[in-house]
Specification:
By secondary structure, this protein is an alpha/beta fold. It has two domains: 5-199, Alpha-Beta Complex (2-enoyl-CoA Hydratase, Chain A, domain 1), CATH 3.90.226.10; 203-249, Lyase 2-enoyl-coa Hydratase, Chain  A, domain 2. It has eleven helices and ten strands. It has helices spanning 30-45, 76-85, 88-94, 110-117, 144-152, 154-163, 169-175, 187-199, 203-218, 221-234, 239-249; strands at 5-10, 14-19, 51-56, 61-63, 99-103, 106-108, 120-124, 128-130, 167-168, 180-182. Strands 1-2-3-5-7-10 form a six-stranded mixed beta sheet, sandwiched between helices. Strands 4-6-8-9 form a four-stranded mixed beta sheet. The protein binds coenzyme A (COA).
């Protein structure tokens, strides 16, 4: 257990990861990045956990970016190595279980990039999102120039990255940067409801679905369709497929075991 990141296991096969540096707007320093990769390694092996929700402590920030304090006097080679070693964005994206970003305030820079690496983004209506790196004389380094245009299109991505402006949760919803906007006081409830809905499903099918959808980014349609068909057929080897089909035919709820 780390001070800068808490892990809670909740009902419904859900794990909640909370970045815990509220006095620094939950900015991502090396310690937080290391704690996130460590927690993901553990949760990957935990069969009881089928879905992860990621959020920030307090009511001000999800994550307000990389810890700017670490940038001062940093040299290029050290910077490159630390970004490579602490590439939490790819680790989240490649995590074999769905990850939901529960965005409870400032979601800026590396915070916005972390949210974009998640599979679904739910934001409180007061949340603010942006890629302000340009104001520091740098650019996004956690995938912002790559994942943002894929989510919102090139023009909107250019606008956000070139101006560094923050946008509201409502606007983020309109352009497809977040998938659900809730009243502030309902953020946790609605995020957990979504997580539990996903946690009820077969974990093998969840992994197949996540991998197949992510494959659509890098594969031409014909290859993507083959990739999907491969996973679809593979799932016919699972007990969960038998359980899901039988439950439907017997008009009862399925109980997926993850086998
Ligand atoms: N890195 C390091 N510290 C950060 C931080 C970051 N990305 N974001 C906020 N903090 C710290 C502030 O330095 C301040 O620390 P202090 O109390 O020791 O001075 C504390 O968090 C509170 O932030 P503050 O700026 O006082 O709050 P605010 O409500 O006035 O503004 C923000 C909130 C998020 C708009 C503002 O902090 C901000 O612009 N942060 C940087 C965002 C950014 O550029 N992210 C991309 C980094 S590459």
């Amino acid at each position: 257990m780390s001070d800068v990141l808490t892990t809670e296991k909740l009902d419904g096969h859900v794990a909640l990861l909370t970045v815990n540096r509220p006095d620094k707007m939950n900015a991502l320093n090396g310690e937080v990045r290391c704690a996130i990769t460590g927690a993901l390694d553990e949760l990957k092996e935990d069969d009881d956990v089928r879905v992860v929700v990621l959020t920030g402590a307090g009511d001000k920030a999800f994550v307000a970016g990389a810890d700017i304090g670490e940038f001062r006097d940093a040299r290029p080679v050290e910077q490159y190595r630390s970004m490579q070693a602490g590439d939490i964005y790819s680790r989240v994206e490649e995590f074999p279980k769905p990850v939901i970003a529960m965005i409870n305030g400032y979601c800026l820079g590396g915070g916005c990039e972390l949210a974009m690496a998640c599979d679904i983004r739910v934001a409180a209506e007061s949340a603010r999102l942006g890629q302000p790196e340009i104001n520091l004389g740098i650019i996004p380094g956690g995938g912002g120039t790559q994942r943002l245009p894929r989510l919102v299109g090139e023009g909107q991505a250019m606008r956000m990255v070139l101006t560094g402006e923050q946008i509201s949760a409502e606007r983020a919803g309109e352009i497809g940067l977040v998938d659900q906007v809730t009243e502030d006081e309902r953020l946790r409830e609605e995020s957990m409801e979504l997580a539990r809905t996903i946690g009820d499903k077969s974990p093998v099918a969840l992994q197949a679905a996540k991998e197949s959808i992510l494959a659509s980014r890098r594969m031409p349609l014909d290859q993507g369709l083959k990739f999907e068909r491969g996973w679809f057929s593979l799932l016919f080897s699972t007990d969960d497929k038998e359980e899901g089909v039988s439950a439907f035919l017997e008009k009862r709820e399925a109980e997926f075991e993850g086998r």
